Fold:
Amino acid sequence: MVEKIAVRVPKQDPKSRVHNFQEVVLGYNAAQAVKEAERCLQCKNAPCIIGCPVGVDVPKFIKLISERKFEEALKIIKEANSLPAICGRVCPQEEQCTKYCTLGIKFEPISIGKLERFIADLNVNQGSPKPRVASTGKKVAIVGSGPAGLTAAAELAKLGHQIVIFEALHASGGVLIYGIPDFRLPKDVVNAEIDYIKKLGVKIKNNIVIGKTYSVDELLHRFDAIFIGTGAGLPHFLHIPGENLPGVYSANEFLIRSNLMKACRFPEYDTPIKIGRRVVTVGGGNVAMDVARTALRLGAEASIILYRRTKKEMPARDEEIENALEEGVKFHILSQPLRILGKDRVEGVECMKMRLGEPDESGRRRPIPILDSTFTIDADIVVVAIGQAPNPLIPKSTSNLKVNKNGTIWVEKETLMTSKKGVFAGGDIVTGEATVILAMGAGKRAALSIHEFIMNKNRR
Ligand code: FAD
Ligand code: SF4
Structure:
Protein backbone atom coordinates (compact mmCIF):
# COMPACT_ATOMS: atom_id res chain seq x y z
CA MET A 1 0.00 0.00 0.00
CA VAL A 2 1.41 3.37 -1.04
CA GLU A 3 1.72 6.08 1.63
CA LYS A 4 -0.83 8.77 0.74
CA ILE A 5 0.91 11.63 2.50
CA ALA A 6 4.41 12.90 1.65
CA VAL A 7 7.06 12.87 4.38
CA ARG A 8 7.04 16.36 5.91
CA VAL A 9 10.27 18.32 5.71
CA PRO A 10 11.49 19.93 8.95
CA LYS A 11 11.61 23.74 9.08
CA GLN A 12 13.02 26.31 11.49
CA ASP A 13 10.38 27.51 13.93
CA PRO A 14 8.81 30.77 12.60
CA LYS A 15 9.28 32.61 15.91
CA SER A 16 13.03 32.10 15.95
CA ARG A 17 13.69 32.15 12.21
CA VAL A 18 12.47 35.76 11.77
CA HIS A 19 15.52 36.75 13.80
CA ASN A 20 18.11 35.02 11.62
CA PHE A 21 19.10 34.59 7.98
CA GLN A 22 19.71 30.84 8.24
CA GLU A 23 17.85 28.50 5.94
CA VAL A 24 14.17 28.04 6.79
CA VAL A 25 13.68 24.59 5.28
CA LEU A 26 16.09 22.16 6.90
CA GLY A 27 15.85 19.30 4.40
CA TYR A 28 15.31 15.55 4.74
CA ASN A 29 17.67 13.27 6.60
CA ALA A 30 18.55 9.91 5.03
CA ALA A 31 15.74 7.96 6.72
CA GLN A 32 13.12 10.55 5.68
CA ALA A 33 14.44 10.67 2.11
CA VAL A 34 14.36 6.88 1.76
CA LYS A 35 10.82 6.75 3.16
CA GLU A 36 9.64 9.42 0.71
CA ALA A 37 11.46 7.72 -2.20
CA GLU A 38 9.72 4.43 -1.37
CA ARG A 39 6.36 6.07 -2.22
CA CYS A 40 7.36 6.45 -5.90
CA LEU A 41 5.34 4.20 -8.23
CA GLN A 42 8.16 4.01 -10.83
CA CYS A 43 5.66 4.82 -13.58
CA LYS A 44 6.70 3.43 -16.96
CA ASN A 45 5.63 6.60 -18.80
CA ALA A 46 7.36 8.83 -16.15
CA PRO A 47 5.31 12.02 -16.66
CA CYS A 48 7.53 13.73 -14.07
CA ILE A 49 10.47 13.71 -16.54
CA ILE A 50 8.42 15.51 -19.17
CA GLY A 51 7.57 18.14 -16.53
CA CYS A 52 11.27 18.88 -15.88
CA PRO A 53 12.70 21.53 -18.27
CA VAL A 54 16.17 19.94 -18.08
CA GLY A 55 14.89 16.35 -18.26
CA VAL A 56 16.23 14.86 -15.00
CA ASP A 57 15.51 11.10 -14.92
CA VAL A 58 13.31 11.44 -11.86
CA PRO A 59 12.15 7.83 -11.29
CA LYS A 60 15.69 6.51 -11.74
CA PHE A 61 17.28 8.76 -9.12
CA ILE A 62 14.36 8.21 -6.74
CA LYS A 63 14.71 4.44 -7.07
CA LEU A 64 18.42 4.74 -6.24
CA ILE A 65 17.54 6.74 -3.11
CA SER A 66 15.08 4.05 -2.02
CA GLU A 67 17.98 1.58 -2.38
CA ARG A 68 20.26 3.96 -0.42
CA LYS A 69 22.57 4.28 -3.45
CA PHE A 70 23.03 8.01 -2.88
CA GLU A 71 26.20 8.56 -4.90
CA GLU A 72 24.68 6.89 -7.92
CA ALA A 73 21.53 8.98 -7.52
CA LEU A 74 23.68 12.13 -7.57
CA LYS A 75 25.37 11.02 -10.79
CA ILE A 76 22.00 10.51 -12.49
CA ILE A 77 20.83 13.97 -11.43
CA LYS A 78 24.06 15.68 -12.50
CA GLU A 79 23.93 14.14 -15.96
CA ALA A 80 20.98 16.43 -16.65
CA ASN A 81 21.27 19.20 -14.06
CA SER A 82 24.47 21.03 -13.09
CA LEU A 83 22.79 22.98 -10.25
CA PRO A 84 20.63 20.44 -8.35
CA ALA A 85 21.09 21.84 -4.82
CA ILE A 86 19.76 25.15 -6.15
CA CYS A 87 16.87 23.66 -8.15
CA GLY A 88 15.87 21.42 -5.25
CA ARG A 89 15.37 24.59 -3.21
CA VAL A 90 13.91 27.22 -5.53
CA CYS A 91 12.31 25.47 -8.53
CA PRO A 92 8.54 25.82 -8.64
CA GLN A 93 8.21 22.00 -8.68
CA GLU A 94 4.46 22.27 -8.12
CA GLU A 95 4.26 23.71 -11.67
CA GLN A 96 6.79 21.26 -13.13
CA CYS A 97 7.81 17.66 -12.29
CA THR A 98 5.57 17.37 -9.23
CA LYS A 99 2.56 18.71 -11.11
CA TYR A 100 2.67 15.66 -13.39
CA CYS A 101 3.39 13.05 -10.69
CA THR A 102 0.85 10.23 -11.03
CA LEU A 103 0.51 9.92 -7.27
CA GLY A 104 -0.78 13.50 -7.19
CA ILE A 105 -4.00 12.46 -8.95
CA LYS A 106 -5.32 10.80 -5.78
CA PHE A 107 -2.79 11.51 -3.04
CA GLU A 108 0.10 13.87 -2.33
CA PRO A 109 2.68 13.82 -5.13
CA ILE A 110 6.27 12.79 -4.44
CA SER A 111 8.38 15.65 -3.00
CA ILE A 112 10.76 15.46 -5.94
CA GLY A 113 12.55 18.75 -5.18
CA LYS A 114 13.17 17.82 -1.55
CA LEU A 115 14.68 14.50 -2.65
CA GLU A 116 16.84 16.25 -5.26
CA ARG A 117 18.07 18.67 -2.61
CA PHE A 118 18.81 15.83 -0.14
CA ILE A 119 21.05 14.11 -2.68
CA ALA A 120 22.75 17.29 -3.88
CA ASP A 121 23.44 18.37 -0.28
CA LEU A 122 25.26 15.18 0.53
CA ASN A 123 27.97 16.74 -1.59
CA VAL A 124 29.34 13.32 -2.39
CA ASN A 125 32.46 14.15 -4.43
CA GLN A 126 30.58 17.19 -5.74
CA GLY A 127 29.22 14.94 -8.48
CA SER A 128 32.72 13.75 -9.41
CA PRO A 129 33.02 15.71 -12.68
CA LYS A 130 33.46 13.46 -15.64
CA PRO A 131 37.03 13.19 -16.90
CA ARG A 132 37.53 15.96 -19.44
CA VAL A 133 36.78 14.96 -22.98
CA ALA A 134 39.44 15.79 -25.57
CA SER A 135 39.56 19.52 -26.26
CA THR A 136 37.91 20.62 -29.50
CA GLY A 137 40.05 23.76 -29.56
CA LYS A 138 36.86 25.85 -29.90
CA LYS A 139 36.23 28.84 -27.64
CA VAL A 140 32.86 30.10 -26.45
CA ALA A 141 32.19 33.32 -24.50
CA ILE A 142 29.24 33.40 -22.12
CA VAL A 143 27.90 36.76 -20.99
CA GLY A 144 26.34 36.61 -17.52
CA SER A 145 26.82 34.03 -14.77
CA GLY A 146 23.17 33.44 -13.81
CA PRO A 147 21.57 30.00 -14.13
CA ALA A 148 21.30 30.34 -17.95
CA GLY A 149 24.97 31.23 -18.41
CA LEU A 150 26.25 28.70 -15.86
CA THR A 151 24.26 25.86 -17.42
CA ALA A 152 25.32 26.73 -20.98
CA ALA A 153 28.92 26.89 -19.74
CA ALA A 154 28.77 23.51 -17.97
CA GLU A 155 27.18 21.73 -20.93
CA LEU A 156 29.68 23.19 -23.42
CA ALA A 157 32.64 22.36 -21.16
CA LYS A 158 31.42 18.76 -20.97
CA LEU A 159 31.58 18.70 -24.78
CA GLY A 160 35.27 19.71 -24.76
CA HIS A 161 35.05 23.43 -25.57
CA GLN A 162 36.98 26.21 -23.80
CA ILE A 163 34.55 28.42 -21.95
CA VAL A 164 34.97 31.90 -20.50
CA ILE A 165 32.10 33.53 -18.59
CA PHE A 166 32.14 37.35 -18.42
CA GLU A 167 30.23 38.65 -15.39
CA ALA A 168 29.55 42.32 -14.59
CA LEU A 169 29.41 41.87 -10.80
CA HIS A 170 32.23 40.94 -8.44
CA ALA A 171 30.32 37.78 -7.45
CA SER A 172 29.02 35.03 -9.76
CA GLY A 173 25.57 33.43 -9.81
CA GLY A 174 23.22 36.21 -11.02
CA VAL A 175 19.94 36.37 -9.10
CA LEU A 176 20.97 33.22 -7.20
CA ILE A 177 23.65 35.26 -5.44
CA TYR A 178 22.32 38.82 -5.35
CA GLY A 179 18.53 38.32 -5.35
CA ILE A 180 17.34 35.23 -3.49
CA PRO A 181 18.08 35.60 0.24
CA ASP A 182 20.16 33.17 2.30
CA PHE A 183 17.16 31.95 4.27
CA ARG A 184 15.88 30.38 1.02
CA LEU A 185 19.12 29.68 -0.78
CA PRO A 186 22.33 29.80 1.28
CA LYS A 187 25.22 31.33 -0.62
CA ASP A 188 27.62 28.49 0.25
CA VAL A 189 25.23 26.18 -1.67
CA VAL A 190 25.41 28.45 -4.74
CA ASN A 191 29.19 28.79 -4.47
CA ALA A 192 29.66 25.00 -4.15
CA GLU A 193 27.67 24.45 -7.35
CA ILE A 194 29.65 27.14 -9.16
CA ASP A 195 32.88 25.48 -7.97
CA TYR A 196 31.68 22.24 -9.56
CA ILE A 197 31.21 24.07 -12.87
CA LYS A 198 34.71 25.57 -12.55
CA LYS A 199 36.03 22.05 -12.01
CA LEU A 200 34.68 21.22 -15.46
CA GLY A 201 37.22 23.75 -16.78
CA VAL A 202 34.98 26.85 -17.03
CA LYS A 203 36.77 30.19 -16.36
CA ILE A 204 34.79 33.07 -14.84
CA LYS A 205 36.00 36.67 -15.31
CA ASN A 206 34.21 38.99 -12.89
CA ASN A 207 33.89 42.80 -12.99
CA ILE A 208 33.66 42.82 -16.78
CA VAL A 209 30.64 44.54 -18.26
CA ILE A 210 30.02 43.45 -21.82
CA GLY A 211 28.78 46.44 -23.74
CA LYS A 212 31.23 48.65 -21.81
CA THR A 213 34.52 46.81 -21.20
CA TYR A 214 34.22 44.87 -24.49
CA SER A 215 31.36 44.70 -26.96
CA VAL A 216 29.71 41.54 -28.26
CA ASP A 217 31.06 42.50 -31.71
CA GLU A 218 34.62 42.52 -30.29
CA LEU A 219 34.11 39.16 -28.56
CA LEU A 220 33.05 37.64 -31.89
CA HIS A 221 36.62 38.17 -33.17
CA ARG A 222 38.07 36.22 -30.24
CA PHE A 223 35.52 33.42 -29.78
CA ASP A 224 33.83 30.89 -32.07
CA ALA A 225 30.42 31.64 -30.57
CA ILE A 226 28.76 33.71 -27.84
CA PHE A 227 25.89 33.01 -25.45
CA ILE A 228 24.09 35.97 -23.89
CA GLY A 229 22.42 35.27 -20.54
CA THR A 230 22.23 38.75 -19.02
CA GLY A 231 18.84 38.35 -17.34
CA ALA A 232 16.12 40.86 -16.51
CA GLY A 233 17.50 43.15 -13.84
CA LEU A 234 15.93 46.48 -14.72
CA PRO A 235 13.24 47.28 -12.14
CA HIS A 236 9.73 48.39 -13.10
CA PHE A 237 8.38 51.29 -11.06
CA LEU A 238 4.84 52.32 -10.16
CA HIS A 239 5.07 55.81 -11.72
CA ILE A 240 2.97 57.35 -8.94
CA PRO A 241 3.56 60.58 -7.00
CA GLY A 242 6.06 60.31 -4.14
CA GLU A 243 8.06 57.47 -5.68
CA ASN A 244 11.26 59.57 -5.56
CA LEU A 245 11.04 60.18 -1.82
CA PRO A 246 13.92 58.89 0.33
CA GLY A 247 12.82 55.57 1.79
CA VAL A 248 11.52 54.12 -1.50
CA TYR A 249 13.60 51.23 -2.85
CA SER A 250 13.32 48.98 -5.87
CA ALA A 251 13.26 45.33 -4.78
CA ASN A 252 16.54 44.85 -6.63
CA GLU A 253 18.34 47.56 -4.67
CA PHE A 254 16.88 46.38 -1.37
CA LEU A 255 17.86 42.74 -1.94
CA ILE A 256 21.29 43.55 -3.42
CA ARG A 257 22.09 45.69 -0.38
CA SER A 258 20.99 42.96 2.00
CA ASN A 259 22.31 39.85 0.17
CA LEU A 260 25.29 40.89 -1.92
CA MET A 261 26.56 43.91 0.01
CA LYS A 262 25.75 42.14 3.31
CA ALA A 263 23.73 44.95 4.88
CA CYS A 264 22.11 42.04 6.75
CA ARG A 265 25.38 41.90 8.72
CA PHE A 266 25.83 45.70 9.23
CA PRO A 267 28.04 47.03 10.97
CA GLU A 268 30.33 44.02 10.38
CA TYR A 269 29.95 44.97 6.68
CA ASP A 270 29.74 48.67 5.89
CA THR A 271 26.60 48.80 3.70
CA PRO A 272 23.74 50.31 5.71
CA ILE A 273 20.07 49.72 5.04
CA LYS A 274 17.36 51.92 6.50
CA ILE A 275 14.45 49.87 7.77
CA GLY A 276 12.32 51.82 10.25
CA ARG A 277 9.29 50.35 11.97
CA ARG A 278 6.94 49.60 9.09
CA VAL A 279 7.95 48.27 5.68
CA VAL A 280 5.39 48.14 2.87
CA THR A 281 6.22 45.93 -0.13
CA VAL A 282 4.23 46.33 -3.34
CA GLY A 283 3.84 43.11 -5.39
CA GLY A 284 2.84 39.46 -5.05
CA GLY A 285 5.67 37.40 -6.59
CA ASN A 286 8.62 35.52 -5.11
CA VAL A 287 10.56 38.78 -5.11
CA ALA A 288 7.94 40.54 -2.98
CA MET A 289 7.91 37.61 -0.49
CA ASP A 290 11.72 37.73 -0.30
CA VAL A 291 11.66 41.47 0.42
CA ALA A 292 8.90 41.27 3.04
CA ARG A 293 10.61 38.39 4.87
CA THR A 294 14.02 40.08 4.66
CA ALA A 295 12.52 43.24 6.18
CA LEU A 296 11.36 41.29 9.25
CA ARG A 297 14.81 39.79 9.67
CA LEU A 298 16.37 43.26 9.40
CA GLY A 299 14.26 44.38 12.36
CA ALA A 300 10.99 45.80 10.94
CA GLU A 301 8.15 45.62 13.47
CA ALA A 302 5.58 45.25 10.70
CA SER A 303 6.06 43.97 7.16
CA ILE A 304 3.07 44.48 4.90
CA ILE A 305 2.47 43.23 1.37
CA LEU A 306 0.24 45.33 -0.86
CA TYR A 307 -1.22 43.36 -3.77
CA ARG A 308 -3.95 44.39 -6.16
CA ARG A 309 -5.45 40.93 -6.69
CA THR A 310 -6.05 38.15 -4.11
CA LYS A 311 -3.70 35.55 -2.63
CA LYS A 312 -4.97 33.05 -5.21
CA GLU A 313 -3.60 35.12 -8.11
CA MET A 314 -0.22 35.80 -6.49
CA PRO A 315 2.60 34.56 -8.75
CA ALA A 316 4.77 33.59 -5.74
CA ARG A 317 5.21 29.91 -4.92
CA ASP A 318 2.56 28.63 -2.48
CA GLU A 319 5.32 27.42 -0.18
CA GLU A 320 6.82 30.92 0.04
CA ILE A 321 3.43 32.57 0.67
CA GLU A 322 2.86 30.09 3.50
CA ASN A 323 6.32 30.76 4.94
CA ALA A 324 5.73 34.53 4.80
CA LEU A 325 2.38 34.19 6.59
CA GLU A 326 3.88 31.92 9.25
CA GLU A 327 6.53 34.56 9.90
CA GLY A 328 3.94 37.28 10.43
CA VAL A 329 4.00 39.16 7.10
CA LYS A 330 0.62 40.91 6.75
CA PHE A 331 -1.18 40.77 3.40
CA HIS A 332 -3.27 43.73 2.21
CA ILE A 333 -4.88 42.15 -0.84
CA LEU A 334 -7.08 43.92 -3.41
CA SER A 335 -5.18 47.12 -2.68
CA GLN A 336 -3.52 49.38 -5.22
CA PRO A 337 -1.07 52.15 -4.18
CA LEU A 338 -2.04 55.58 -5.55
CA ARG A 339 0.53 57.86 -3.89
CA ILE A 340 3.50 57.58 -1.58
CA LEU A 341 3.03 60.11 1.19
CA GLY A 342 5.66 62.13 3.06
CA LYS A 343 7.41 65.48 3.20
CA ASP A 344 11.14 64.79 3.40
CA ARG A 345 10.90 61.01 3.40
CA VAL A 346 8.30 58.23 3.25
CA GLU A 347 5.53 58.44 5.86
CA GLY A 348 2.80 56.30 4.32
CA VAL A 349 1.02 55.02 1.24
CA GLU A 350 -2.38 56.10 -0.03
CA CYS A 351 -4.17 53.15 -1.58
CA MET A 352 -7.42 52.27 -3.26
CA LYS A 353 -9.49 49.12 -2.81
CA MET A 354 -9.95 46.87 -5.85
CA ARG A 355 -12.33 44.10 -6.87
CA LEU A 356 -11.74 41.35 -9.42
CA GLY A 357 -13.33 41.44 -12.87
CA GLU A 358 -13.00 39.12 -15.88
CA PRO A 359 -9.64 37.44 -16.68
CA ASP A 360 -7.17 39.61 -18.64
CA GLU A 361 -4.54 38.53 -21.22
CA SER A 362 -2.43 36.99 -18.39
CA GLY A 363 -5.35 34.67 -17.61
CA ARG A 364 -5.71 36.18 -14.12
CA ARG A 365 -8.82 38.12 -13.11
CA ARG A 366 -8.41 41.83 -13.80
CA PRO A 367 -8.33 44.17 -10.76
CA ILE A 368 -10.91 46.97 -11.02
CA PRO A 369 -10.80 50.06 -8.77
CA ILE A 370 -13.67 50.58 -6.31
CA LEU A 371 -14.67 54.26 -6.30
CA ASP A 372 -14.35 56.26 -3.05
CA SER A 373 -12.41 53.48 -1.36
CA THR A 374 -9.09 55.22 -0.63
CA PHE A 375 -7.30 54.44 2.61
CA THR A 376 -3.83 55.12 4.06
CA ILE A 377 -1.18 52.83 5.51
CA ASP A 378 1.69 54.18 7.65
CA ALA A 379 5.12 53.26 6.29
CA ASP A 380 8.77 54.15 6.91
CA ILE A 381 10.02 52.21 3.89
CA VAL A 382 8.30 51.26 0.63
CA VAL A 383 9.80 48.60 -1.62
CA VAL A 384 8.53 48.26 -5.18
CA ALA A 385 8.56 44.61 -6.29
CA ILE A 386 6.32 44.63 -9.35
CA GLY A 387 8.68 43.01 -11.84
CA GLN A 388 11.80 43.58 -13.88
CA ALA A 389 12.57 44.28 -17.52
CA PRO A 390 15.50 42.90 -19.58
CA ASN A 391 18.86 44.61 -19.17
CA PRO A 392 19.14 46.99 -22.18
CA LEU A 393 22.94 47.34 -22.39
CA ILE A 394 23.72 44.44 -24.74
CA PRO A 395 20.80 45.10 -27.10
CA LYS A 396 21.90 48.77 -27.30
CA SER A 397 25.62 48.13 -27.79
CA THR A 398 25.51 45.25 -30.31
CA SER A 399 25.20 45.80 -34.06
CA ASN A 400 22.36 44.07 -35.94
CA LEU A 401 20.87 42.42 -32.87
CA LYS A 402 17.10 42.13 -33.26
CA VAL A 403 15.17 43.08 -30.14
CA ASN A 404 11.47 42.51 -29.41
CA LYS A 405 9.10 45.33 -28.44
CA ASN A 406 9.38 44.51 -24.74
CA GLY A 407 13.19 44.74 -24.85
CA THR A 408 13.87 40.99 -24.88
CA ILE A 409 16.35 39.64 -27.43
CA TRP A 410 14.78 37.91 -30.43
CA VAL A 411 16.01 34.31 -30.99
CA GLU A 412 15.21 31.52 -33.42
CA LYS A 413 12.82 29.21 -31.53
CA GLU A 414 14.65 25.95 -32.18
CA THR A 415 18.31 26.97 -31.97
CA LEU A 416 18.19 30.06 -29.73
CA MET A 417 20.46 31.82 -32.25
CA THR A 418 19.89 35.59 -32.36
CA SER A 419 19.69 37.63 -35.56
CA LYS A 420 23.51 37.77 -35.39
CA LYS A 421 25.28 34.66 -36.68
CA GLY A 422 27.19 32.85 -33.93
CA VAL A 423 25.48 34.78 -31.12
CA PHE A 424 22.93 32.84 -29.06
CA ALA A 425 20.79 33.97 -26.11
CA GLY A 426 18.57 32.46 -23.41
CA GLY A 427 17.09 32.90 -19.95
CA ASP A 428 15.32 36.04 -18.72
CA ILE A 429 16.93 38.24 -21.41
CA VAL A 430 14.87 36.28 -23.96
CA THR A 431 11.72 35.31 -22.03
CA GLY A 432 11.45 38.28 -19.67
CA GLU A 433 11.57 37.42 -15.98
CA ALA A 434 10.78 33.73 -15.52
CA THR A 435 12.31 30.95 -13.41
CA VAL A 436 15.69 29.44 -12.59
CA ILE A 437 14.89 26.14 -14.25
CA LEU A 438 13.54 27.73 -17.45
CA ALA A 439 16.77 29.75 -17.68
CA MET A 440 18.74 26.54 -17.16
CA GLY A 441 16.67 24.72 -19.77
CA ALA A 442 17.45 27.52 -22.25
CA GLY A 443 21.17 27.36 -21.37
CA LYS A 444 21.16 23.65 -22.03
CA ARG A 445 19.31 23.94 -25.35
CA ALA A 446 21.55 26.78 -26.51
CA ALA A 447 24.67 24.75 -25.61
CA LEU A 448 23.58 21.98 -27.98
CA SER A 449 22.92 24.48 -30.78
CA ILE A 450 26.26 26.21 -30.16
CA HIS A 451 28.05 22.86 -30.26
CA GLU A 452 26.40 22.03 -33.56
CA PHE A 453 27.19 25.51 -34.92
CA ILE A 454 30.88 25.60 -34.03
CA MET A 455 31.61 22.02 -35.03
CA ASN A 456 30.12 22.66 -38.48
CA LYS A 457 31.34 26.26 -38.81
CA ASN A 458 33.99 25.66 -41.43
CA ARG A 459 31.64 23.53 -43.49
CA ARG A 460 29.03 26.29 -43.81
P1 FAD B 1 20.20 36.28 -14.04
O1 FAD B 1 20.07 35.33 -12.92
O2 FAD B 1 19.56 37.62 -13.90
O3 FAD B 1 21.75 36.47 -14.34
C1 FAD B 1 22.22 37.40 -15.29
C2 FAD B 1 23.65 37.73 -14.98
O4 FAD B 1 24.19 38.51 -16.05
C3 FAD B 1 23.84 38.58 -13.72
O5 FAD B 1 24.84 38.02 -12.90
C4 FAD B 1 24.25 39.96 -14.25
O6 FAD B 1 25.11 40.64 -13.35
C5 FAD B 1 24.98 39.57 -15.52
N1 FAD B 1 25.02 40.64 -16.51
C6 FAD B 1 24.01 41.45 -16.89
N2 FAD B 1 24.43 42.30 -17.86
C7 FAD B 1 25.73 42.01 -18.08
C8 FAD B 1 26.72 42.53 -18.95
N3 FAD B 1 26.43 43.54 -19.79
N4 FAD B 1 27.99 42.03 -18.93
C9 FAD B 1 28.29 41.00 -18.07
N5 FAD B 1 27.38 40.46 -17.23
C10 FAD B 1 26.12 40.95 -17.23
N6 FAD B 1 12.97 31.73 -9.90
C11 FAD B 1 12.63 30.51 -9.44
O7 FAD B 1 12.62 29.55 -10.21
N7 FAD B 1 12.32 30.29 -8.13
C12 FAD B 1 12.40 31.29 -7.21
O8 FAD B 1 12.12 31.06 -6.05
C13 FAD B 1 12.79 32.59 -7.65
N8 FAD B 1 12.92 33.61 -6.77
C14 FAD B 1 13.39 34.82 -7.21
C15 FAD B 1 13.64 35.82 -6.27
C16 FAD B 1 14.16 37.03 -6.69
C17 FAD B 1 14.45 38.09 -5.66
C18 FAD B 1 14.39 37.29 -8.08
C19 FAD B 1 14.91 38.64 -8.55
C20 FAD B 1 14.12 36.32 -9.01
C21 FAD B 1 13.65 35.06 -8.58
N9 FAD B 1 13.42 34.02 -9.48
C22 FAD B 1 13.06 32.78 -9.03
C23 FAD B 1 13.66 34.21 -10.94
C24 FAD B 1 15.00 33.64 -11.35
O9 FAD B 1 15.98 33.94 -10.40
C25 FAD B 1 15.41 34.15 -12.73
O10 FAD B 1 14.40 33.76 -13.63
C26 FAD B 1 16.74 33.56 -13.18
O11 FAD B 1 17.77 33.90 -12.28
C27 FAD B 1 17.11 34.04 -14.59
O12 FAD B 1 18.38 33.55 -14.90
P2 FAD B 1 19.32 34.25 -16.00
O13 FAD B 1 20.56 33.44 -16.03
O14 FAD B 1 18.57 34.45 -17.24
O15 FAD B 1 19.62 35.71 -15.42
FE1 SF4 C 1 7.45 8.51 -9.28
FE2 SF4 C 1 5.55 10.46 -9.50
FE3 SF4 C 1 7.45 10.20 -11.40
FE4 SF4 C 1 5.51 8.31 -11.16
S1 SF4 C 1 5.25 10.47 -11.75
S2 SF4 C 1 7.73 7.99 -11.48
S3 SF4 C 1 5.20 8.33 -8.92
S4 SF4 C 1 7.79 10.76 -9.23
Summary: The mean pLDDT is 93. The CA atoms of residues 423 and 446 lie 10 Å apart.
